[in-house]
Amino acid sequence: MTSALENYINRTVAVITSDGRMIVGTLKGFDQTINLILDESHERVFSSSQGVEQVVLGLYIVRGDNVAVIGEIDEETDSALDLGCAHFTAEKIDGLEKT
Prior knowledge:
Blueprint: H1 2-5, E1 12-17, E2 22-30, E3 36-47, E4 51-62, E5 67-72, H2 75-80
Antiparallel strand pairs: 1-2, 1-5, 2-3, 3-4
């Protein structure tokens, strides 16, 4: 996987952590355990009533064992989104239980 991450260096990426947080930033580096270094990063906090709040983090390290998903963000499309007006709802999925 680490060789695939080389394509993302100096590009804007979104990282979903194992605890469900979404962190967006410029990937500056990584190591063999997928520890990530993100620059100019922020966390997107999704709310069903207040849209999306962006919490500035700056230079940020995400531990590799906390990375669930990483993907490149299309900066042009992302900048066109009005995240402040976006509202989200969640529905219960039958058969799933929190353990």
